[in-house]
């Protein structure tokens, strides 16, 4: 078995106070668990540097990029994001984006790679929103397409919330197909139009979810064979998630991840996973849910 490339930076954790609505401590705890469980010994660890303004402007308006880098985001936009964009948050957003770019490039080389952050899918072209400062996947997709590293990109987003920012940024780009499976009645209230949207009713459990996924996966590449897949592996479809409305178990989440990784790797398609959402005041339990994705990915490395 090859070693799984894992991308992580200590400053993914911007040091929010315990109890904050955004569970920032999960990034540090996840990396501790990767080490404690021995998964780290079966991985190659990579540390990104901050994404440049030019990279970020591939998917965002340059004025907004400069506001984030200068820590001068207007208060109204900070309220939509859900926290102040100070120096640590600004650095974290740039690192997470660079981490997703690094994961994409490593996936193209190795077949699979995982970022321990990323999946900030509510950030739109002109601003952030919903705990998302920069849309790392949209930036990475546009950058790799621009550089000619890939010709087609698929984004499969299984976070419980619709990937509205990704859909908004990527709409009209025939080289990018966006797929979102989400809880119909959850945030955001105003949904965007992805290439494929699957809106689920409340309380969908493991069996119905996995049946839907088995139906969906072949459709994601129907008439569109990507060079690279970005997989948003948010764990907020879990039944105990504070901001989710679905009812998956730990076993259901891991089965979901194994299906996604297996489907694309069995077809020789590179896949880069990003962490996505997950919300609980119990940081250890939350980090253990995210760990399931890395355990599943290691099976296909």
Automatic annotation (TrEMBL):
MF (Gene Ontology): histone deacetylase activity; hydrolase activity
Family, per entry: Belongs to the histone deacetylase family.
Residue ranges of every copy of the Histone deacetylase domain listed in the record: 20-285
Annotated keywords: Hydrolase
Organism: Hoeflea olei
The protein's name: Histone deacetylase
Entry-linked InterPro entries: HDAC_classIV, HDACs, His_deacetylse_dom, His_deacetylse_dom_sf, Ureohydrolase_dom_sf
GO biological process per UniProt: epigenetic regulation of gene expression
Xref: PANTHER family: HISTONE DEACETYLASE 12, HISTONE DEACETYLASE HDAC1-RELATED
């Amino acid at each position: 078995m090859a070693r799984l490339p894992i991308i992580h930076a200590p400053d993914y954790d911007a040091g929010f106070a315990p109890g904050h609505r955004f569970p920032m401590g999960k990034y540090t705890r996840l990396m501790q668990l990767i080490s404690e469980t021995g998964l780290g010994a079966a991985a190659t660890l990579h540390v990104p540097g901050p994404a440049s303004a030019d990279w970020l402007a591939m998917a965002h308006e340059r004025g907004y990029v400069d506001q984030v880098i200068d820590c001068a985001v207007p208060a109204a936009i900070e309220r939509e994001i859900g926290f102040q964009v100070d120096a640590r948050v600004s650095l974290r957003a740039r690192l997470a984006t660079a981490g997703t770019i690094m994961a994409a490039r490593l996936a193209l080389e190795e077949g699979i790679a995982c970022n321990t952050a990323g999946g900030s899918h509510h950030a739109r072209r002109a601003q952030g929103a919903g705990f998302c400062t920069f849309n790392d996947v949209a930036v990475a997709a546009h950058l790799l397409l621009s550089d000619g590293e890939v010709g087609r990109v698929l984004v499969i987003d299984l976070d419980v919330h619709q990937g509205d920012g990704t859909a908004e940024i990527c709409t009209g780009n025939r080289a990018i197909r966006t797929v979102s499976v989400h809880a119909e009645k959850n945030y955001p209230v105003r949904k965007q139009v992805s290439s494929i949207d699957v809106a689920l009713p409340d309380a969908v459990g493991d069996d119905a979810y996995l049946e839907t996924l088995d139906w969906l996966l072949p459709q994601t590449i129907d008439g569109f064979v990507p060079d690279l897949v970005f997989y948003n592996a948010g764990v907020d479809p879990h039944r105990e998630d504070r901001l989710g409305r679905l009812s998956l178990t730990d076993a259901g989440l891991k089965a979901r991840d194994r299906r996604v990784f297996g489907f694309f790797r069995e077809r020789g398609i590179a896949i880069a996973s990003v962490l996505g959402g997950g919300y609980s005041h119990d940081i250890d339990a939350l980090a253990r849910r995210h760990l399931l994705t890395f355990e599943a990915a290691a099976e296909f490395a």
